[in-house]
User: Which sequence fits this backbone?
């Protein structure tokens, strides 16, 4: 009796201690991430300050207004931004796996997920806030993940949002299949075999489909085809969210050494800006609509399954792209790449037709070195996510 109570007390104390420790660690990681972001982007803020205030171009009040308009405008997120960002970074899924205690021997776990580099942890908290605080945020290595699993949260909060603000990419089809599966799960308190077969038919073309084992167990399935995406007007807030997920701001530099004479070695420098949005080739039509939206840029298909919206003409970047993001600010940590992009644009503009000096080129390279540090990591993450879909 006493030994049992001691063990039970030890178990509860240990459980409480682990829970409290976990909360402390999560809070610590969150705060450290914010501090790291501030530290990593301090040089950008400093040069932004020099460019817009210390140079005498604007007064301090105007400087604060300009910088805050790009980074601190409003902690709340626009509904269209949520949809655009989900078109870029979100996923809808139904995990199906064996479970002995369930009626049919299979368990269904619906989920909505956004997985990002840890530097964008704060945007996940803001997305969670937008959805009323439902869902959980977890950490794994250098990534953070926001996920909604609870059926009532999916039915009452998640689905109504995407019905009111529909997705524009082919991800709309994933959502529509997901939504129909959720309705079946909701309406059947105890899932029948007929209901399970309906779900398998819907799940067949969702993400990576169903397992070979399920195909063998249910050989007479009639898969539901993926729905077509209805064309909807591109809203600027949607586009900002989409670019927060899939866009990039780049500086391209070329240093070329040449010899005009055996004893004379000269160096020439070239610098240009490049704005790009990358998406799966199945969304080529949408990318072409973005060209129409901006009235500039072009769409280029790669040898892989990717397609790019590209723009590197300086006058168009200066007069269309930069003003667009000043009016509709980026919400993710990508805003700091954009600020570096502006800084480089001002350096380029100040030069006009004059040749680059080694010092100026070094300055541009310094700006360049602080940009897009996480793009490769995020691309690797997406490849991992694609390979894990349907498992």
Assistant:
């Amino acid at each position: 009796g006493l030994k049992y109570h001691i063990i039970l007390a030890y178990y509860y104390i240990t459980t409480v201690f682990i829970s409290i420790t976990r909360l402390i660690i999560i809070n610590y990681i969150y705060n450290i991430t914010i501090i790291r972001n501030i530290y990593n982007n301090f040089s950008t803020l400093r040069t932004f300050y020099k460019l817009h205030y210390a140079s005498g171009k604007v007064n301090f009040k105007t400087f604060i207004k300009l910088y805050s308009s790009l980074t601190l405008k409003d902690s709340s997120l626009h509904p269209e931004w949520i949809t655009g960002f989900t078109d870029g970074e979100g996923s809808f899924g139904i995990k199906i796996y064996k479970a002995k205690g369930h009626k049919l021997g299979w368990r269904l776990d619906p989920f909505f997920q956004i997985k990002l580099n840890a530097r964008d942890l704060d945007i996940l908290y803001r997305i969670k806030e937008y959805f009323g605080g439902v869902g959980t945020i977890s950490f794994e290595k250098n990534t953070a993940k926001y996920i909604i699993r609870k059926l009532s949260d999916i039915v009452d909060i998640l689905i109504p949002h995407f019905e009111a603000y529909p997705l524009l990419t082919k991800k709309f089809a994933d959502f529509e299949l997901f939504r129909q599966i959720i309705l079946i799960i909701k309406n059947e308190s105890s899932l029948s075999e007929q209901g399970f077969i309906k779900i398998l038919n819907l799940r067949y073309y969702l993400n990576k489909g169903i397992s070979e084992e399920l195909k063998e167990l249910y050989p007479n399935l009639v898969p539901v085809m993926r729905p077509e995406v209805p064309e909807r007007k591109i809203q600027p807030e949607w586009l900002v969210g989409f670019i927060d997920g899939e866009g990039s701001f780049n500086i391209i530099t070329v240093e070329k050494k040449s010899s005009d004479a055996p004893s004379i070695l000269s160096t020439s420098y070239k610098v240009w800006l490049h704005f790009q949005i990358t998406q799966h080739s199945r969304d080529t039509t949408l990318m072409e609509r973005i060209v129409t939206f901006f009235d500039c840029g072009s769409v280029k298909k790669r040898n892989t399954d990717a397609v790019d919206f590209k723009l590197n003409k300086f006058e168009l970047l200066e007069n269309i792209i930069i003003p667009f993001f000043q009016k509709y600010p980026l919400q993710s940590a990508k805003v700091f790449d954009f600020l570096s992009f502006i800084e480089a644009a001002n350096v380029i503009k100040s030069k006009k037709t004059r040749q680059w000096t080694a010092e100026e080129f070094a300055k541009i390279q310094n700006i360049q070195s602080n940009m897009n540090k996480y793009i490769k990591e995020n691309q690797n993450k997406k490849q991992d996510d694609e390979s894990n879909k349907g498992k």
In short: DSSP finds 15 helices and eight strands in the chain.
